[in-house]
Amino acid sequence: MRIALVAQHGSPLTPAVDPNADAQAAALTPLAQALAGLGHRVTIYARKDSAGLPDSAILARGVTVEHLSAGPAAPLTDSELTAHVRDFGDKLAGRWSRNCPDIAHAYNWTSGLAALAAARDLNVRVVQSFGTLGTLRATPPCGQPAGDEPDQRIRMETCIARSAAAVVADTSAQASRLIQMGVSRRSVTVIPEGVDTARFCPDGPVADRTERPRLLAVSPLTEGQGLETLVRMLPGVPEAELVIAGGPPKSRLRRNAVYRNLRRLATCLGVQRRLVFTGEVRLPDLPALLRSADLLVSAAPHDTLGTMTIAAMACGTPAAVSAVGGNRDAVLDEVTGLLVPPGRPDLLARRIRRLLATPMRLEGFGIAAADRARARYPWDRIARETVAAYERCLPAAEVVLAEIEDEPAVSPARELAMA
After folding, report:
1. Within 10 Å of residue 59's Cβ, how many Cβ atoms?
2. What is the dihedral of CA 129, 134, 139, 143, to 10 degrees?
3. Helix (H, G, I), strand (E, B), or coil: what is residue 11?
4. Beta-ladder partners of 322
């Protein structure tokens, strides 16, 4: 197939150093490479979000990036992107009129608007991925008031989901919400984000650590991440250290208000010597840091994709995390880790303390976590499931022609399909 991945939010060539950056945007490149590895031709149509980006580039064998100028050549928020949807959609339509894809897969709701507009007069079916649904983020237990999500976004997501040929939900919770929004069950497929199981694996370098049991949280130093709950949990887990990775570089941590507040809270609770901040962690350093932990911990009230949880599991590190979003799909409670309601430091501490007190059980969790990550989340499996979702959108004749193309002999049907 000729597959178009639509990314109005920005280019995969724009460097990302933050492990907590938009996980769905970061997933574009490995998904495209995995699709190309299955023999498909993939073009990523991205908004030019940096002046230094070329008009087009070869990202990998079988994967091309086309940059479309729509708005300023700089990163934009969702609300800023909406002003440039029409321009981006018009340029998509121009490209597709000359080189029509078989399937267009839009990432993010603004990309969906642009893709549906571009496909209106062309025989292109649009598959939609949202990453985060505005209506889910505006619903407890996320802890985010509904007013924080623009009504326009929530209305548009509903229209896009109902108009697309298919919707790929990242989690079962997202799939349930899409069905509640009136999307046909047959149109919704749950396909999680994958993980690079070659990079995130139990074998490899391990970051330096103390002899204390290590609880690791990888999180931006911003409000609403559940970090205060983790600090309040620490007195209930004697001798363990809590390492918080993320935020600004270590030299600038003192300027961060959340860092200062957490430090004050730790001092009041008498655990300041067992609380460590690493500051910013580069993506290449993340696997070694995850391997150094006894447990990945999170008390975040929302975690749409559970990306960090899956990465830790792939490294053989079990997770004790909030039972929200992608975590609920990734973690098998009492098998690959622990699921705890958000905002319960007492319960989180009690369950972690019991787990750390039984090292063989903890080791068993780590083995099971790595096995689950290797079985469910490698990119080649995610790509195969994604292709199956695409094929269900195509007329039966097109699927047959696609299968004929895989035959070694050159037949008239193959020539017609290639033409």
Report:
1. 20
2. 110
3. coil
4. 340
Burial grade of 405 (CB within 10 A; 0-12, 13-18, 19 or more): middle
Q: State the DSSP H helix or E strand holding residue 189, giving kind and residue range, or none if neither.
A: strand 188-190
Give pLDDT tens digits for 54-112: 999 999 999 999 999 999 999 888 888 999 999 999 999 999 999 999 999 999 899 99
Bridge partners for 125 per DSSP: 103
pLDDT in tens, 363-402: 999 999 999 999 999 999 999 999 999 999 987 645 554 5
Which of 134-138, 308-312, 400-404 has the least mean pLDDT? Answer: 400-404
User: 326-335 contacts: CB < 8 A, separation 24 or more?
Assistant: 326/170, 326/171, 326/192, 326/193, 327/298, 327/303, 328/171, 328/172, 328/173, 329/171, 329/172, 329/173, 329/190, 329/192, 330/192, 330/306, 330/372, 330/377, 331/306, 332/368, 332/372, 335/365, 335/368
pLDDT tens profile 167-210: 999 999 999 999 999 999 999 999 999 999 999 999 999 999 99
Burial readout 366-380 (b: 16 or more C-beta within 10 A, e: otherwise): bebbbebbbebbbbe
d(CA 374, CA 378): 6
Q: 298 pairs with which residues across the strands?
A: 321
At position 23, the amino acid (one-letter code) is A
